[in-house]
Amino acid sequence: MSFHPISLRHAGAVGAATLVAGGTFAVAAFAADGAVAPEQLAAAAVVPDGPVSTDGGGGVDDFFAADAEQSDQERQTRRDDDRERFRAEVDEAVRSASTTGDGIPEPEPEPVVEPAADTSGGGGDAGSSVPSGSPKQIALQMVQDQGWGASQFHDCLEPLWEKESNWNHTAQNPSSGAYGIPQSLPGNKMATHGDDWQTNPATQIAWGIDYIKGRYGDPCGAWAHSQANNWY
């Protein structure tokens, strides 16, 4: 039986190369599995202290003789080179494993919904929006918004406020001080429906319709009372 002898230098080189390959494979495997953070893997990697060589050579005596001839500076330089090469291999394995999650799209932000603009006509119940037009057109729309028929305006509200103010939003009774289209007494009662109660016909009309609704039920009830008592 014959065999080929293997030097201690060859055996040491094979073992070191196996350690480097196994360490690189383990780092890449743990990084891909996501068990620990890549930077922790790189920091925890064990770097061999001595040089690793895989070139051919002589026997045991040649190995120790060559090692003895090396200066301390040369040995340190080779150790530093081996450490840098090992770190580069570990970093490359970590980078390759950490790029597997780059293709995951980020969730899109929720759309921002702006609140609807407030189109209410003031603090009263005379309608959810402010009609435009002349004072009579505004009043007709507000009457219909209450669910009353057009006759409540044409037969009752129109003659009622014609009698009170001639539909003039700046009308003022010189004796009582009643003010505006509905002749509110005092006039600042209409401030509950807007700060512009002295100049805005829509604010005055909204207040007047709410007043009629609360006191007489509808414009025809207020008109009947005014005809009987000369006031409402």
Can you describe this structure?
By secondary structure, the protein is mainly alpha-helical. It folds into 2 domains: 92 residues, no CATH class; 95 residues, no CATH class. The N terminus is likely disordered.
Strand and helix layout:
Blueprint: H1 8-33, H2 38-44, H3 60-69, H4 72-98, H5 135-145, H6 150-165, H7 201-216, H8 219-229
Helix pairs in contact: 1-4, 2-4, 5-6, 5-7, 6-8, 7-8
In short:
This protein has 232 residues and is mainly α. The protein has helices at 8-33, 38-44, 60-69, 72-98, 135-145, 150-165, 201-216, 219-229.
* Average of pLDDT: 72
Number of strands: 0
Q: How many helices?
A: 8
Estimate nothing, just give the exact number of structural domains: 2
What is the gyration radius calculated from CA atoms? 49 Å
Task: List the main descriptive attributes of the protein structure presented here.
rod-shaped, 232 residues, single chain, 2 domains, disordered N terminus, mainly alpha
